[in-house]
Amino acid sequence: MTNADIAATFEQVADLLEYQGGNVFRVRAYRNAARTIDGLVESVAAVRADPKRSLTDLEGIGADLADKIGTLLDTAELPLLAELRKSVPSVVFDLMRIPGLGPKKVKLLVDALGIDSFESLETACREGRVAAVKGFGAKTQSAILGNIGFAKNPDHTRLLWQEADAIMQDLLGWMRGCPEVRQIEGAGSWRRGRETVGDLDLVVESGEPTAVMDRLCGWKETSAVLLRGDTKTSVRGPQGVQIDLRVVDHRSFGAALQYFTGSKEHNVGLRSLARERGLTINEYGVYELTSELTDDTKSAKGLCVAGATEQDVYKAAGLSWVSPELREGRDELTAAAHGELPHLVELGDICGDLHMHTTATDGEDTLAEMVRVAISRGLHYIAITDHGQRVTMARGLDARRLLTQWEQIDRLNESLAEDGRPPIVVLKGIEVDMLEKGGLDLPDDVLSQADWVVASLHYGQNQPRDRITARIIEAIENPHVSVIGHPTGRLLNRRPPYDVDIEAVIAAAQRTGTFLEINANPWRLDLNEHHAAAAKKAGVKIVISTDAHSTQGFDVMRCGVLQARRAGLEAGDVANTRTLAELRKLMKR
Ligand code: DGT
Ligand code: CA
Ligand code: CA
Ligand code: ZN
After folding, report:
1. Measured distance CA(477)–CA(513) in Å, rounded
2. Residues of the chain with pLDDT under 70
3. What pLDDT does 292 receive?
4. How far, in Å, are 233, 236, 360, 543 from residue 226 at the CA level?
5. Each residue of 40-92: pLDDT tens digit?
C-alpha cells in the first residue's frame, strides 16, 4: 500500500465514523493522520522498516494508528474499515461524493427520506422533500440537484495526474530493473499530461515479451492480472488503477509509443494525413499502402517505411514531432504540417512564484521557511499572498496584521541584500477575496502599498452567472489587482467550476492588462487548457502559481507548467518567466 492508499483508508474510516455520529476527537485523529501521511515525502513503509525510527514519531500518529498502519502495510486491509462498511448502506459512499454533502448531511438524508440511490435523491429534490429536511433548504436542495450529475459522472473517479504520476514513477523504476527491458516509456493520457488519468499505459521494447510481462505481474503493487496475451498484458495496480503493457520489438517501438500515447482523435487525424501520402500507420509502423496488409506482411521488410522512433513516424507523414501535451486532435497536426508548432514553456523557464501562504493564515510553514526553500529551489522572486480578512476560516489578515507582515518582508529583503545582490526578492502580496456583495475585503489604500495582489473568489460560489462574472470583472478593473487567482474555482473530481462567463473575464483582463492564473495545485489547474489558450489568443498574460501552503507545495509548479503546455503556451505567454524588472514593466500599474 502506498501513502496515498493508507491516507485514503483513514479518510474513509473518518467519514464512516462521522456518519455513525462517532466521537469528534476520534474522527479528527483519523483525518489528521491521513493528512500527515499524504504529505510525507518518504513512504510510511520505509519509516516502519527503519529500525532506528518509529511511526509514532510522525505527527498525529499514536500507538493505535501506528498499529493500524502496520496492519495495512502487511495485509492491505483494515478490519475496522470492513466492520464500519458493513454497518453503513453502500449508497452512502456514492452520496458523499456529491459536492457539498459530507457524512453528517448524508446521514440526515438517508434517515429522513430513505434515500438509497442517486436517482431517489434526484426525485426527492425535484419533489421538494430535501428542502423540508432540518438543516437543508431550497438553496441547498437546488445545489444538490445540480451536483448529483457531477458525482454520477464516471469521469470524476479518475486519478489526478499527480497521483497517476507517483504510481507511474514507481512502476517505471521497477520495470527498468528487468534486464530484458531495452526501452520503456509511459504512454496514454499520463504522457499527454491530462488533468486526470483513467489507466496507465506502458510501452516496452524487448525481444523477450514473456519476461517483461512476468516482471509487471511480479510487481509488489500488482493485485490481479486482468488479461494476458503474447505481447500485451493488463494488471490491477495501486489504488485500483489498471495498467496496460505492450511489448514490441526495436523496429516498432516509436510507432507503438505514438499509437498508445494517443489521443484517439490525434491518431485518427495523423492516419488520414498519412493516407493522403499513400501510407498507413498502425502500432507496428508506417507502411506503404500498395499491398493488402495481413498479420504476416505487416512486419515484412521493404514495406515498412518508419517505426523505430516517433520522430520517424511523424516525418513519414510530413510532420514535425508533436509534443504529447498537444496531441488532443485540435489544431496541432495543421501546425505540425506548416512548421508552426509552439515552442512550449518549460519548468526551467519559470523564474518566480506569485501565490503562496504562510503560517500567518492557513499555510503550514513560516515566512522565513518559505523564503529559504524558495531560494534553494532557484526562484528569483516570490510573492507572499496570505488570505485577506474575509477568509475567517484561515484567520485571514486584516489591514493591521497585513502591514505588520509587510514590515517583516521589508526587513527580510534588507537582510537578504546585505551582502550585495540578494538571492531572491520577496514581494509584499495579498490574496484578497471578492466579496459576495461585490468589492474586495481590504481597502484600496492598503492594496496600493502592495507589490502584488491576487484576487480570488472563495465565497458565494453558487451565485448566478451574471453576479459571479460581475464580481470578477469588478476585481479585474481594480487598478491594484495584479492577477485573478484560480479563475473558475473548480476542484477536479470534487466540485464543478462556478458559473462564469470566461470570455468576458478574458476580455476584461485584456482591456486592463490584468493577468490570469493557472493555479498549479493538481486539484485546481484552472484556467484549464481551453481557457488558457483563449487568453493567449487575446494577448492576456498567464501567471503559473503554486498556491503553496507549505514548502512542499512548491513541487506542484510542474503540474501548472504541464497545463500551460497543453494550452500551447510559450515562455513569452507566461508572466513569471520574466525577470522581476520585466515583470514589473508588464504589470498594469
Ligand atoms: P485514459 O486512460 O482514459 O486516461 O485515456 P488514454 O488516452 O490513456 O486512453 P487509453 O488508455 O484507452 O488508450 C491509450 C491510447 O491508445 C489512446 O490515447 C489511443 C490509443 N488507443 C487505444 N485504443 C484505441 C482504439 O481503439 N483506437 C485508436 N485509434 N486508438 C486507440
Ligand atoms: Ca490510459
Ligand atoms: Ca489503457
Ligand atoms: Zn491561495
Report:
1. 9
2. 291-302, 589
3. 58
4. 8, 7, 50, 43
5. 778 899 899 999 999 999 888 999 999 999 999 999 889 999 999 998 988 89
Q: Return the ligand 1 atom nearest residue 260 CA.
A: 16
Whether the link from the prior residue into 527 is cis, omega within 30° of 0, is yes
Q: What architecture is domain 159-337? A: 2-Layer Sandwich (3.30)
Can you give the residue ranges of every domain in the chain? 3-156, 159-337, 347-586
CB 421 within 8 A of CB 375: no
The residue whose C-alpha atom lies closest to atom 17 belonging to ligand 1 is: 262
| Distance, C-alpha 162 to centroid of its chain | 6
Using DSSP bridges, classify how beta strands 515-519 and 542-545 pair: parallel, antiparallel or unpaired: parallel
Please tell me the total number of residues recorded for the chain in this structure. Answer: 589
Can you name the CATH fold of 347-586?
TIM Barrel (3.20.20)
Short-list 232, 236, 213, 216, CA closest to 224: 236
Query: What is the 361 CA–ligand 3 centroid distance (Å)?
Result: 42
Report how far ligand 2's centroid is from the alpha carbon of 217 (Å): 18
Backbone angles phi, psi at 91, to 5 degrees: -60, -25
Return d(Cα 531, Cα 566) in angstroms, integer. 11
Phi, psi (degrees; rounded to nearest 5) at 555:
-55, -30
Closest CA to 491 of 137, 39, 151, 188: 151
Top-level class of domain 3-156: mainly alpha
The C-alpha cell of 463 is what? 451565485
Under a CB-based contact definition with an 8 Å cutoff, are residues 256 and 19 in contact? no
Q: What pLDDT shows up at residue 266?
A: 98
Asked whether the beta carbons of 356 and 385 are under 8 A apart, the reply is yes
188 lines ligand 1 (CB under 6 A): yes
Render the burial of 332-345: b for 16+ CB within 10 Å, e for the rest: bbebbeeeebbebb
Long-range pairs for 498-503 at CB < 8 Å and ≥24 separation?
498/457, 498/461, 498/462, 498/463, 498/468, 499/463, 499/464, 499/465, 499/468, 500/465, 500/468, 500/469, 500/472, 501/465, 501/466, 501/469, 502/527, 502/531, 502/534, 503/534
Atom of ligand 1 lying closest to residue 194 CA: 4
Q: What is the per-residue pLDDT for 293?
A: 56
Residue that has been written with the C-alpha cell 488532443 in this structure: 328
DSSP 463: S
